Amino acid sequence: xxxxxxxxxxxxxxxxxxxxxxxxxxxxxxxxxxxxxxxxxxxxxxxxxxxxxxxxxxxxxxxxxxxxxxxxxxxxxxxxxxxxxxxxxxxxxxxxxxxxxxxxxxxxxxxxxxxxxxxxxxxxxxxxxxxxxxxxxxxxxxxxxxxxxxxxxxxxxxxxxxxxxxxxxxxxxxxxxxxxxxxxxxxxxxxxxxxxxxxxxxxxxxxxxxxxxxxxxxxxxxxxxxxxxxxxxxxxxxxxxxxxxxxxxxxxxxxxxxxxxxxxxxxxxxxxxxxxxxxxxxxxxxxxxxxxxxxxxxxxxxxxxxxxxxxxxxxxxxxxxxxxxxxxxxxxxxxxxxxxxxxxxxxxxxxxxxxxxxxxxxxxxxxxxxxxxxxxxxxxxxxxxxxxxxxxxxxxxxxxxxxxxxxxxxxxxxxxxxxxxxxxxxxxxxxxxxxxxxxxxxxxxxxxxxxxxxxxxxxxxxxxxxxxxxxxxxxxxxxxxxxxxxxxxxxxxxxxxxxxxxxxxxxxxxxxxxxxxxxxxxxxxxxxxxxxxxxxxxxxxxxxxxxxxxxxxxxxxxxxxxxxxxxxxxxxxxxxxxxxxxxxxxxxxxxxxxxxxxxxxxxxxxxxxxxxxxxxxxxxxxxxxxxxxxxxxxxxxxxxxxxxxxxxxxxxxxxxxxxxxxxxxxxxxxxxxxxxxxxxxxxxxxxxxxxxxxxxxxxxxxxxxxxxxxxxxxxxxxxxxxxxxxxxxxxxxxxxxxxxxxxxxxxxxxxxxxxxx
Length: 757
Fold this sequence. Notes:
Layout: E1 5-10, E2 27-38, H1 39-48, E3 63-73, E4 78-82, H2 89-97, E5 110-113, E6 124-125, E7 128-129, H3 134-139, E8 149-156, E9 161-168, H4 169-179, H5 185-211, H6 214-238, H7 247-270, H8 273-286, H9 303-315, E10 321-325, H10 333-349, E11 353-357, H11 361-367, E12 370-375, E13 378-383, H12 386-428, H13 431-446, H14 461-464, E14 502-509, E15 519-526, E16 531-535, H15 542-549, E17 557-562, E18 568-571, H16 575-585, H17 591-599, H18 605-614, H19 620-623, H20 632-644, E19 650-654, H21 662-673, E20 678-682, H22 686-693, H23 710-716, E21 723-729, E22 732-735, H24 739-756
Parallel strand pairs: 4-11, 4-12, 5-10, 10-11, 16-20, 16-21, 18-19, 19-20
Antiparallel strand pairs: 1-2, 2-3, 6-7, 8-9, 12-13, 14-15, 14-17, 21-22
């Protein structure tokens, strides 16, 4: 059994990080290093390595994702975190949420939505309880208000009022203890609660003692001793035999239990539960839940709806820092637009700091005020949204490139002049010329480089080169593109004779005879080179339609015709999950081994490696890394390679962007735009549909130079591609005359109504 990887986080430990116990919406941590390592590997390494005397600190073994970085988040600002797959974004977010970074105070309230919820043995799915109703699970997720909040009927014996309310586990235990006839029950309850509190205090005391030094460290160590003594005392009292508890102790503990219960009830009353319930219902409706489903158990939901429930549980809280890792996964376009508007409103009404990761460019642009870029294990910051960042990046690349070219020309001229001067000086024994050449060489070595300082001022020797360690100006560095590895699709197989690739005529479909029609009189014809986009809300039947197109299920009524030589490459919603399951069942299976088996000798190893390389998978990744250990983005590339090796004339892609970062989405859009076959694209990603299906090079989103859009198409082809965006609604397939924009505007109106409720 393999142990879970361990996240090790260190930073420059400053006394100001933990001066008090106040929560903070602001983070300022210097020298941050994050390493991820297997606990089993660490223990094996430690056991096998001999101990070295005089070496007090050893560098943590494992893969270092972030090194000597400065993490800086201002309070109340909405940040977008950018970085390629595998750079450590999700690990950073997990470290922040678990307070593994010393600079984040323990009392800071952090709420996190991870990319996937994990079902555990105790009946939980992430922060949700599977045995609770949807509404109850969302309301019970706020761990800062209640360690575990639950809906229960509680009878208060002091007021004899029967109420149904939200109570903490502590309050429920204390209330039930007073309901019994046993006078020792309140004593047992309060001692158990005191033990749990002592455990928490001891953990915090250890943390403070480890992080503080000097006078504060001395006080922290004294506090640690006090906490240890208190823990020992509380533990003894908890384990005491009830028969040996004297009457005075029973009276004291009973009084403490009553006071604690009263305090907890006052805290619950101060939470404004009615507003919290109303907000939870509003969020669930916005995310697509129906009011009649609020009382369903979480365990009855599919994985996608559980993730929506998890998202609602994060939004309903009022944390100091909200972390959202791919929140648009499993949301349809209506949910995405609703979430955009909700977070925009939150920016005006709350001081919560938001840090989010998303592959949806339009979503990042709408929500984020500033951008954090994780690259080369460091953070860089940009004030503005993604569109502004990309525009600034391109301008900087052009400006720095021209500056470097001019610098190289000037340097080449000066070096040529130096050579001529030295040659002339040696020939005539002219010491003045030799001194002149030496002076010029010193200028080339020490004073050539960046002409502008980091603050935008012109370079000055006494200001920008202060200090004995600086001997020359900084080199001119041209920003390099941070897009993922490029992707290229093979040319299609020749059809030999013309005709439509696939034709749907009067297609009806229902899962039960005489049941509700999922598809109602659908007509669609696709020829070679066509671009067809299919959009719609979740549950509208999009996946059912593409499965009929692909021949996986027959229609209830109507006719499906295909070209006799048609090859279809089908990427389904669960293609990545299928690969993950295959990887778990065959732990040693690699991408190279998988394609070798599936191609059945039609491709040799060199051809398979070339195919995988064209998808962005190359080198040891394809031959040495098991499929089970590939990232989500790498699995998408492998799934694409599996469907294109036969050179299909038609690609059917159903929600292909779910596991990709936005750099890879850009590379994919470029590759699909130049594909010479037909494409049927089912997606909620507005950028991808606009670029691939409509052929638009968005002014806000920089595509690669080899992107083939409408303008290139008109200049090179006499008959342009057919480009159509359809919306599937109530079983009908309706073409949108204005494409994505028309569908988006219709959803914005619905969202505005939902937000007013």
